[in-house]
Structure formats: C-alpha cells, structure tokens
Design brief:
Blueprint lengths: L26 E6 L6 E7 L9 E6 L2 E2 L16 E6 L4 E10 L12 E5 L3 E4 L11 E7 L2 E6 L4 E5 L3 E5 L11 E5 L2 E2 L2 E2 L2 E4 L4 E5 L2 E5 L11 E7 L2 E6 L3 E5 L6 E4 L11 E7 L2 E6 L4 E5 L4 E5 L11 E6 L5 E5 L4 E5 L2 E5 L13 E4 L8 E5 L2 E6 L2 E5 L11 E6 L6 E5 L2 E5 L17
Antiparallel strand pairs: 1-2, 2-5, 3-4, 3-6, 6-7, 7-8, 8-37, 9-10, 10-11, 11-12, 13-16, 14-15, 16-17, 17-18, 19-20, 20-21, 21-22, 23-24, 24-25, 25-26, 27-28, 28-29, 29-30, 31-32, 32-33, 33-34, 35-36, 36-37
C-alpha cells in the first residue's frame, strides 16, 4: 500500500492537476431564432479566472447536445464565440451552455433560453431571450432591424449578426421606460428610431441630432405620446390630452393641432395613420378626423354623422387599396371603402372580441389580408372568411395581442402580446408591407 506523498516523487515528472477555479458562468445570447430549418444561431462568452482558453458544451433540455460533438472549439477567455445548433425538429426547447477549460473544469450552466416552434410559429420569451420584458407594447420593422417596445423596460432592437441593443432609462435620457410608440426612422443611412413614452415625452432625431422632447423643452403638447406616423409632410405625433404635434422634417418646425385651434374633435388622440390623400387621426372619445393637404382641411367621422360603430378609436390601418380600417373599444372593426362603411363584430363574424387592440394591413390588391389583435386572440381576415389564433390552437404565449409588425426577410409576421413575442411564418398573405400598429398596451 502506498502512502500519499506531497509533491512529485524523485526522478518523476509532476502530474498535471485540475485547477480549483472553473470558468465563470457563461453568457448566452440568441442571434437567430430557429426557423423551419431548425438552425439556432447563438453567441456565447465566458471568462476564466486564470485567463485560459475555454470551449462550450451545449445542453438541450438538460442533456448534452449533439451527442456526436462533445464541445465547440476553444476560444480566448472573454472572447465571444458564435455557433449554430441544428435542432432535431419542431418542439419545445430549453437551451443552456457550460464553459470548459483545458483541464475539463466545467462552469455552472448559463441562464437558459427557452423557445417553442412548429412549422408556422416560434415563441420568444423573456427572461432567457434578451428581450428585456415580456410585456410588448410596440413593434416596428425596417429591413433586417426589429424594434420592440415594452411596457417597463424601454426599447429593444434586434438585427441578425449584430445582436441586441437597448434604449432605456439607464443608458439614455429617456424619461420613461414605458414605450407606447416607435417609428423606424432613418437618416443618412443610419437607423434612428423615434420613441414615444407613457409619461416621458418623445425621443426623436431633429436636424440630425438626438433630442428628448417634453412639454418643458419643446412644443410637444403632452408628455403622454400615443402614436407616431411619418409622411412626406413630416412627422405626426399623437398625444393623450394635447392633440397632435406636426413636425416639418425639412424646416424642423412644429405645429400643434388641438380642439382650440382646429376642428380636431378631441385632444385625446389614440391613433394616427397616413393614406395617400391625407392623415387619419383617431381619438379616445370623439371618433375620427381626416386631414387632407392642399387646403381641404379636416373632415370628421363619428357615430352621429356616419356608420362608424363607436367613437372610441383604438387603432387605424390603411391597406394597399387605400381602404381605412378602424379598430374600436367595444364597437368591433370598421372599414371605409370609398364612401361606404362596413362593420365586423364578434357576432356573427370571426372576430374574437369587439375590443380591437392592434391592426396590420397586408399588401395584396384589391383585397388585403388584415391582421387584428384583440384581448381574446389574433384574427386574420381574408376573403372569403376569418381565421382565429389563440393560446389554445397556436404557440401564442398570451391572448392579448398588443402590437403587430411585418419583417421583410425571414419570419414575416411579428406578434406582440402581454406575455411575450412570437413570429408567425405560415400563410401570412403575401409579401410584407410597412408596419402599422397600435402602440398602447
């Protein structure tokens, strides 16, 4: 029997020993969500206390994956490594990674990323995904960039191969983390989103400069911004209590329309959408107002002078045929085709609810596909009928559909809910169109 002796025996090489300090818990970031190909692109970073190189083991639903590959190649301590994971098929997945040094010391597993997808849907959830909150309030898409507004954590921006960026109260002068509206503005090829907030005013780019506008330092008429819409005439900013602020994006001058200086029926503006022949403004309690350029001025639509089913307007979308779709709070969905109003109600149509929270118009002519968000699920209207998606028949994480947006590449339809974000590949009704959404929770 040999006794344990400290140190090396005379004439023998000292055997390598494991370090007592494993690599730090790695950071895991999802870059590209699994589509029908099942390829999940992620980026991992881990630091080693002794500066050694590390490699990563993939854990899928708690088991090492894939079994034929034990780990990735080595990378420097603290150096990000991007790699693809080929999932075996549609299903529910929990992804974790561990860092391993050359001595085979393993770190604790990373924070998990959970995703579910099938041939049509993929669900993206916080906290594991880098979305700062599951409470989605606004969506906009420009090219490959996705802008995701949240109720309590500011704006998240995602672009493949670039990853995630964030604008919030901690890293910008943004005065409120509750995002109510976002518009994917560009200037000089640079992406400079305009952001509206619940109580903190507006983040904008004016004359090439980032500015944070409120009632104290600008002509913004109220700090509760409800809508942002751009046209060739400039930017229109809807507010709750102050009417509409119009910003000329050439001269960068402000003009405010309210009940005191214009026919606008209410200062409590909830939605704005631009058509080819003017701007439509929805109000919380007094119906619709249409502004036509060239001196024609304002035209009012309400329950007293039209077939509009409710004066409580929640969202507006204009389709490719210039039909105006109007969501209401309790009156269902109305559409103005030419001079004729048509109303769709939960009974007898296929609407899940008469409360409309968000609208998105497809690009088809002459009959566009319409996507309608409600507190009771997502509806798709396309002639000749309706289809409804809920948590019971799809991977929607929640039935309260707060925001909708189209992507130009990849998974086209993005759906925001109060419990997370999903992509819908399925039959979305044709090529994507610019985003039109309701930007309130």
């Amino acid at each position: 029997m040999l006794a344990a002796v400290a140190g090396a025996l005379p004439g023998c090489a000292k055997l390598p020993t494991r370090s007592s300090a494993p690599p730090a818990r790695p950071q895991l970031e999802s870059l590209q969500f699994p589509a029908t190909t099942g390829i999940w692109t992620v980026r991992a970073t881990a630091s080693d206390p002794e500066g050694r190189q590390v490699r990563f083991r993939v854990l899928l639903n708690g088991a090492q994956f894939p079994s034929e590959i034990t780990s990735t190649r080595f990378t420097g301590s603290g150096v990000p490594l991007q790699f693809d994971i080929f999932l075996p098929g549609p299903g529910n997945y929990r992804l974790e990674i561990q860092a391993q040094d050359a001595g085979e010391n393993l770190s604790p597993p990373s924070e998990a990323i959970e995703a579910s997808y099938d041939l049509d849907w993929i669900a993206i959830r916080q906290p594991a995904f880098p979305i700062p909150s599951d409470r989605i309030t606004a969506l906009a898409v420009l090219g490959t960039m996705r802008y995701i507004g949240t109720e309590d954590a500011g704006l998240a921006m995602f672009e493949r191969f670039v990853g995630w960026q964030y604008l919030n109260t901690a890293n910008t002068p943004l005065a409120d983390a509750h995002v109510t509206a976002v518009w994917p503005y560009t200037i000089g090829g640079q992406r400079r989103p305009w952001i509206g907030t619940m109580n903190g005013g507006l983040r904008a780019w004016i004359a090439g400069q980032e500015v944070f506008c409120n009632t104290d330092n600008s002509s913004l008429p109220a700090n509760h911004v409800t809508a942002i819409s751009f046209s060739t005439h400039g930017a229109w900013i809807g507010t709750l209590g102050g009417g509409v602020a119009r910003i000329d994006t050439t001269a960068w001058t402000w003009r405010v329309n309210n009940t005191g200086n214009s026919p606008l029926p209410s200062d409590r503006v909830t939605a704005i959408a631009h058509a080819a022949n003017g701007a439509w403004v929805g109000t919380e309690d007094r119906g619709l107002a249409k502004w036509t350029p060239g001196g024609a001025g304002w035209t009012l639509h309400n329950t007293g002078n039209s077939a509009l089913p409710s004066d409580r307007i929640t969202c507006i979308a204009v389709d490719s045929s210039q039909n105006v779709w109007v969501g209401t709070d309790g009156g269902g969905l109305a559409v103005l085709r030419g001079t004729t109003w048509t109303t769709y109600r939960a009974t007898p149509s296929g609407l899940p609810s008469d409360r409309i929270l968000s609208l998105l118009a497809g690009p088809e002519r002459p009959a566009a596909t319409m996507w309608i968000g409600t507190p009771a699920g997502l509806a798709r209207f396309r002639q000749p009928g309706w289809r409804t998606f809920t948590t019971r028949n799809s991977l929607l994480p929640g039935d309260t559909i707060t925001a909708l947006g189209y992507a130009y590449l990849g998974w086209p339809l993005w759906v925001g809910t109060d419990r997370g974000l999903v992509n819908f590949r399925g039959d979305t009704g044709g090529a994507p169109s610019p985003p039109v959404a309701r930007f309130r929770p």
